[in-house]
Structures are given as C-alpha cells and as structure tokens.
Write a structure and sequence with these properties.
230 residues; alpha+beta; 4-stranded antiparallel beta sheet; two-stranded antiparallel ribbon; 8 helices; 6 strands; globular
C-alpha cells in the first residue's frame, strides 16, 4: 500500500524498480505488458522519466525560476524572464513543469515515454514536434492512442481538457492514479511547500488553491476504453 505522502513526492518506500525507474507496482506490471505488445508493432517503449521526488521537482523549478534552465512558452520556445514578475514567471514555468508536490510523477503511476528504436534518450527533448507527424516518436504516439487504454493507461494532459499543456509523451495508469487524485489534500501540500526552499514561496502560497484546482484536479477524464483493473 502506498504511503499517503507519496502523492506529494515525500515518500517512495512502496515503489519498485522498473527499467531503472521507481514505479508503483501495478503500474510497472501493466507497463511491462504494454511494452511487450508494442514490440510486435516495431516500437520499443522506453521510459524517459518515472518517479520524481519533491526535492528533484523543486530543483527543476528553482533552476527555471532562477534562469539557470530554459523557460518555454506554449510553442516550446525559450522566454526571457529577466523582466517578468514573480507571478508571470510562475505561470510560464507551470506551462511545462509541475509545482513541487503537485507533479503526477510523484505518484509512481505516471511515465514519460519514447521510442527507443527511433531516438535515444540523450537526443530526446520532450517537445510536441517529436510526437507529431514525421517526428521520431510519431508511430509510438499513434500506437498508444489506439492501445494504451487496453493496459489501463491514458493521456491526462490533453488540449482543452487539462490545466497542464498537452503532453503526448505522458501516460498515467488510471486505476491507481485516480485513487491518488481523489485523496489529494491541499493542506499537506501547503505544509510541504512552507517547509521547503522553493523560489517564489510566498507568491505560490497565496495562489495555492486556484493553482491546485487548475493544475492538479483539471485533467482529461478517463477514456471509456480503459480496461485494466487492479
């Protein structure tokens, strides 16, 4: 059973190792089945990112907030944040990176995937063009659209259906992820952020409830084709 703190990236004791990443056990089993099925279509499903803890997500956040890592706009183009306000920078970061404590990657149920037959992880940028038509992961994406639901996975970040920008590489194992989402507690998150060294802490705490509603709870609904059960 997952520790409730897993939802905020504060505990990973119940997760298991899978392809060099920590995952929730049911998620890992379903992903193994899906990976094996994709081989018959000439696709090598590889994980770019699985579990990330709170501190790792905060490191990503702080690097972007401090200008040490590119901040991208909706078209995946770098933005100069030197003249931006704290709230403007927060909104820009949230286009592509989750607030620490709110990332679905904390849960062990969500993975970023790529096709190892078409591109290496070192070459991968995780931008939409790689998954669009003629991109190296186009065939993977199309295969997942047709087949992921058979193994319990779906795309939580979709155009017009989620607060987070569409991510054609990000899949979630719905049976477990939905339970975690149902139990998400903003008060636990607030405490975690208050105790952290996150950049723009006061601004984030002042906006925390609407940010959680938009970026955590606003996700695409499970498609009717999801068949995998626990």
């Amino acid at each position: 059973m997952l520790n409730p703190l897993t939802a905020y990236g504060l505990d990973s004791s119940a997760l298991i190792e899978h392809q060099g990443h920590k995952l929730e056990s049911h998620t890992a089993a379903a992903l193994s089945q899906m990976t094996a099925a994709a081989v018959t279509a000439g696709i090598d499903i590889q994980i770019c990112s699985g579990y990330r803890d709170f501190d790792r997500q905060m490191h990503i956040w702080n690097n972007k907030a401090n200008g040490l890592r590119p901040v991208l706009d909706l078209e995946s183009k770098p933005v100069d944040i030197s003249e931006k306000s704290a709230d403007e920078i927060i909104d820009l970061i949230l286009l592509w990176s989750a607030l620490p404590g709110t990332s679905r990657h904390h849960w062990g149920t969500d993975v970023d995937l790529f096709d190892g037959n078409q591109i290496t992880q070192s070459q991968l940028q995780l931008i939409s063009a790689e998954y669009d038509k003629d991109g190296p992961c186009s065939a993977l994406h199309q295969w997942l659209v047709l087949n992921a639901s058979k193994y319990g996975f779906y795309f939580p970040f979709q155009l017009g259906l989620s607060g987070v920008s569409p991510e054609p590489w990000h899949l979630s194992y719905f049976p477990v992820a939905n339970n975690i989402l149902s139990g998400f507690d903003i008060h636990v998150l607030k405490q975690a952020i208050s105790n952290s060294d996150i950049r723009f802490k006061s601004e984030l705490l002042a906006r925390l409830e609407p940010l959680v509603n938009h970026y955590v709870f606003k996700v695409a609904p499970s498609p009717s084709g999801v068949t995998q059960v626990l």
